[in-house]
């Protein structure tokens, strides 16, 4: 019997309220009880009963809501259909990772876990077995700008016990900003067996999963990168050509940055301000934060597609995304390329920290 047949059989024996709640979760993804009541217009008592019947049948999973751990968030069980319908299987759940912590901590390089971030959050506590990849120490060139050299990337991964055949799971704070950048960088150098931890460090901690301050040590390995693949990256020259061509420039920064009221991310601690504010002419503006629902999860595929199509960003467009230093734009690149399946998306990692410091570069503030 297939999973879908098994689910239908279980649903057949449940009351109408449970079936209605199941269909609502299948359509909308994770929801709190309050949100379910508002969406279904069922009474609180009927909603609680329907949830309990689904839970007893093994069709639900529950976890603390990402934005408010005091509330419980309900979603379809992991063996059910993908209720968010993404183009690629590139997200892993916290529960999936928690069941594999022994593998993560093993010296076997088959599965490796990386926390990609800035600051000292890793030292304060991280997922057991996680390797720290810092923004300046692992993810950029020696001067803190641009991507590292291929040899440096290979040496860095090999030194941490990672091979080009390892399954790598990435996570971080700040809504996975820097984890998404690391994901894009790994793809740029040709590593395909790659996943992002849904909810990142924030959800892992709020849900009560284990953390440690112990630093893992793994046997050094040989890493052979097949890239770089330049079709994933945009340079300043590419952006200059885009101004005269049929390319969509997508600015994912905050509204304050877009209009030039601020010259550094309001919530980007330590990021340098540029000489001028504003945006690249004719840029489409879709803030990175629009990709998440109220509980901090990626929105469903159809919702994400509607967000970009409403601003004229279509699946067959040639798109260049940018932000301040390339980390938030990497998150949007992840959404467009991996979750929506857009075929031609490049991340301009120089972003506004480069463009906003150029002499005589064209800039708009409206």
Cα radius of gyration in angstroms: 22 Å
Work out the strand percent: 5-15%
Counting helices, strands and paired strands, the structural category is alpha/beta
Terminal CA distance reads 58 Å
H and E string: HHEHHEEEHHEHEHEHEHEHEHEHEHEH
CATH architecture tag of the largest domain: 3-Layer(aba) Sandwich
Morphology: globular
CATH class of the largest domain: Alpha Beta
Strand numbers in spatial order across the main sheet:
4-8-7-5-6
CATH topology of the largest domain: Oxidized Rhodanese, domain 1
Helix content: 25-40%
Could you describe the 3D structure shown?
The structure is a single chain. The protein is an alpha/beta fold. The chain has 3 domains: 74 residues, Arc Repressor Mutant, subunit A (Orthogonal Bundle); 138 residues, 3-Layer(aba) Sandwich (Oxidized Rhodanese, domain 1); 125 residues, Rhodanese-like domain (Oxidized Rhodanese, domain 1, 3-Layer(aba) Sandwich), CATH 3.40.250.10. Helices cover 34% and strands 14% of the residues. The protein has 15 helices and 13 strands. The protein has a 5-stranded parallel β-sheet. Strands 9-13-12-10-11 form a 5-stranded parallel β-sheet. It has a 3-stranded antiparallel β-sheet with strand order 1-3-2. Helix 2 packs across helix 4 and helix 9 crosses helix 14.
